[in-house]
């Protein structure tokens, strides 16, 4: 009998499995709105000009590919800290932040989850309802009990903030971990306002909760500084917390897996001890991170010229996503949808929580070759002038029954 006979067939990942299904579809006019990837006006994954220039610089001075330190390329880690917290952030000046380069935002969450499980084994983890599908899996596999806090108000098409606040005040326990989306909430696209973050932050401290901020989309909501509002608010208010950050989207470097994990501590001594434990968690997961993507990002962020170019290109991506939201609403109205659609333009980031049911999403795939997640989430960053009429007509058709 095989040693692996007891292995069960795992279900497909709800997002990456959808991508496999899309690739197997023989229809030529199929549209993939499932995976969170930005494509340009021609439907292609862009290679940013700033990245092209940085890679040319690196290629002009080739270097051996030795192992990086466990916690990553130092110049990259410093650049990531400044991007996340702000160059003049007090938490950085005081040496209170333990940081490492991670294998994407997912790797940052994984290392953070393992670190927290060793430190707070009895803690529970709270994630939003709904949340990115991998949040539950990551923290469950680390050994945590994972609970939901209210987030999406379907009737109001927005954040159920009062319910969220009430849950944080009454249902959490000291030492519990709460996962917060800094911006461009995945999957809904609805974010808390600065005023709401300011209401929630003191509750987190009063309840002695550990915020774990997931910031995968910095720059895709309102801007680099604006999208980091929660992180910088928590730092200014003296919280101890974690941040998982990613440059996958903002640099269009998805396959390079360029992320970072930051833990804001109470003082420098604590940060030194935490840093040592983060290195243990990284070492026992993947030993040390890869080089190329981190060098590209560090090269861009370390050059005034290339950084300015990157910020312009990032602004262009953000503006194009917003324009696709508006165009989708207009196209759906033109296709005969008479329900209110303004919620699509009030959402932020790459995704729209369309309100379509699982059956409607399945019909979009089977009848029209338009692929989205059963939750109703679609990636508006994958829309363009060529596929938009087809998508709008298909959505209108399933909405009409």
TL;DR?
With about 400 residues, this protein is an alpha/beta fold.
Task: For this entry, give a set of tags.
401 residues; Aspartate Aminotransferase, domain 1; Aspartate Aminotransferase, domain 2; seven-stranded mixed sheet; two-stranded parallel ribbon; 16 helices; 46% helix
Write the layout of secondary structure elements.
Layout: H1 16-24, E1 31-32, H2 49-60, H3 74-85, H4 90-93, E2 97-103, H5 104-119, E3 124-129, H6 133-141, E4 145-150, E5 152-153, E6 158-159, H7 161-170, E7 177-181, H8 194-206, E8 210-215, H9 224-227, H10 229-236, E9 241-246, E10 258-264, H11 268-283, H12 292-301, H13 304-334, H14 342-346, E11 351-353, H15 358-368, E12 370-371, E13 377-379, H16 388-400
Parallel strand pairs: 1-12, 3-4, 3-7, 7-8, 8-9
Antiparallel strand pairs: 2-10, 5-6, 9-10, 11-13
Helix pairs in contact: 2-12, 2-13, 3-12, 5-6, 5-11, 7-8, 8-10, 13-16, 15-16
